[in-house]
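thought: fold this chain, then report.
action: predict
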Amino acid sequence: MIQISNVNDVSLRTVAVRGSARATKDIWRDDPFVTRLRNFVDLTLPDLQSLRAVIEVEQSVKKRRDLVHDGYEYCKLCFVKDGFAARYKLLRNGKRQIVDFVLPGDVVGLPGSFLDRAAHSVLAVSDMKLQVCSLEAFVALCFRRPKFGLALSWLAAQEAVNYAERKSTSAGARRSNGSPICSSKSIRGSRWWAAPRRRCSTCRSRRR
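observation:
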């Protein structure tokens, strides 16, 4: 009877482990951030479990909310699960100029979290779902599993190249009267763009 009990205990533990592994795979199966990472590195089940462990919260953000404020400290990495946002710069004349758009699979806080102050603001264009982790927790993950650090470096390099291409393309864009075309011009009349700036919804930022 004791042997049967031990066998049953082992069987139950095996079923529990397999069930947990299957649940982890299902959670990340259609995750856009993991899908993007897999373009650069192979991710095993332990890798996915380690990534899930550093996620502090899955947060819902309403449209027209600021996620990051230009010139403020930002210490989070937010993996976009659903929704869209816009990175923008506040110009001297008070207008806002779009730098680029944030899509599912992108990272809010890259590269701003690695700087003393964020280099641009990020505003939710639609309702969003974010997976939020602290920069400290993700750096610790990179020490344990270097492939995440490598993948994030490739993502940052890709973002830098895309930004340089957009900047060089728009730098020469002129109207017929010779004045430069401002990317904020086409959308500044829209309701979400005219909304006042609100408090950052993902962390308490402070001015340095």
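thought: worth noting. Helices lie at 2-29, 32-37, 45-54, 135-144, 146-171, 191-194.
final: tokens above.
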